Amino acid sequence: MYKLLKKTGKVRRGQFITPHGVIETPVFMNVGTLAAIKGAVSSEDLEKIGCQVELSNTYHLSLRPGDEVVRKLGGLHKFMNWNKPILTDSGGFQVFSLANIRQIKEEGVYFNSHIDGRKIFMGPEESMRIQSNLGSTIAMAFDECVKNPSPREYVMKSVERTTRWLVRCKNEMDRLNSLEDTINKKQMLFGINQGGVYDDIRIEHAKEITKMNLDGYAIGGLAVGETHEEMYRVIDSVVPYLPQDKPIYLMGVGLPSNILEAVSRGVDFFDCVLPARNGRHAHVFTKYGKINLNNAKYELDDSPIDEGCDCPTCRRYTRAYIRHLFKAKEMLAMRLCVLHNLYFYNKLMKDIRDAIDGDYFEEFKEEKLRLWDGRA
């Protein structure tokens, strides 16, 4: 259940009540594709850095270790020792982004595993069964994510099929949740709005999926080739047509500036691999923007990554030491930077919530953008 606590213009401050706890929104979900954050970050670490929601991947976990294995071990929460909410994406994006050879048909998608090449079929029912085996808090509907730009005629047909798939997802989830041996009988389902960069297709699709009264709604198919301006235009167009009494999730986005812009347009949920991926390559976020610790100028820099940051890394380690770890190819380098970046994102979301509560979000947004743009 989504509880709207405050709304100023389009900006929303809420709480999403789930079987695994209350999520304060706006929120950034920390991406642990294979039930772990890349960079040697544990579930205990996630608790310490303020993570509210962990996100895992249906497709990848179905291959390794296998969703049946996770089910036998008590579900994803028990498997990874995480008792807060977990969202699993449907596997749709990975099917379309990783599979070199695929056939999209009405029943689902035929493709080859990116690991060993074996033939796999995944459709709406299969995705729901895998996610039910994982026992996540929130399951995402199986959809097709098209690249931007794509021909209008293809996008129309793809969206119509995605709508039909959503009906099948809902029916299968209702069936699975009614079974005696289902791990999470209160598993929630989010539908996904698609339509490329065509505003009218997006709006019609939003109207159609709203009728299904799902637990939440995502905007998918963005940050896949379009400009930031096009992305913001699509968000502006579609958000008013999604249910305002349900959480709205912008999938796969993104940069801190993207998050601020999307919050100002009414978005509640975010996820992205960017903070962890950047951290593993020595790119870290600070109040003045992103820096690369591999640069020679940090060789003798005995300051923390970000002055005033209270993350476990900044409390104890210097830029010079972390740079040394990267040059020496020590795993600790990645861990320290991933911890910092995820803390930065989780703290940013808390600061956003505080700014909305305190009626100074617009000033907060402008100041952050000014600092990150180097205009300070």
UniProtKB/TrEMBL annotation:
Which reaction equations make up its catalytic activity? 7-aminomethyl-7-carbaguanine + guanosine(34) in tRNA = 7-aminomethyl-7-carbaguanosine(34) in tRNA + guanine
Sites binding Zn(2+) sit at 309, 311, 314, 340
User: Domain tRNA-guanine(15) transglycosylase-like spans what residues?
Assistant: 11-370
Residues that bind substrate, according to the entry? Answer: 89-93, 143, 194, 221
Q: Which pathway or pathways does this protein act in?
A: tRNA modification; tRNA-queuosine biosynthesis
Tell me the cofactor note: Binds 1 zinc ion per subunit.
A molecular function annotated in GO for this UniProt entry is: glycosyltransferase activity
E.C. number, please? Answer: 2.4.2.29
Keyword Transcription attributed: no
Cofactors needed by this protein, per the record, are:
Zn(2+)
Record-annotated active site: 89 (proton acceptor), 271 (nucleophile)
InterPro entries with a match to the protein in the record: ArchSynthase1/Queuine_TRR, TGT, TGT-like_sf, tRNA_ribo_trans-like
Q: Which Gene3D superfamilies match?
A: Queuine tRNA-ribosyltransferase-like (3.20.20.105)
- Record's PANTHER family? QUEUINE TRNA-RIBOSYLTRANSFERASE (PTHR46499:SF1)
The entry's family comment says: Belongs to the queuine tRNA-ribosyltransferase family.
Any idea what job this protein has?
Catalyzes the base-exchange of a guanine (G) residue with the queuine precursor 7-aminomethyl-7-deazaguanine (PreQ1) at position 34 (anticodon wobble position) in tRNAs with GU(N) anticodons (tRNA-Asp, -Asn, -His and -Tyr). Catalysis occurs through a double-displacement mechanism. The nucleophile active site attacks the C1' of nucleotide 34 to detach the guanine base from the RNA, forming a covalent enzyme-RNA intermediate. The proton acceptor active site deprotonates the incoming PreQ1, allowing a nucleophilic attack on the C1' of the ribose to form the product.
Q: How does it assemble?
A: Homodimer. Within each dimer, one monomer is responsible for RNA recognition and catalysis, while the other monomer binds to the replacement base PreQ1.
Q: What is this protein called?
A: Queuine tRNA-ribosyltransferase
Quick one: which gene encodes this? Answer: tgt
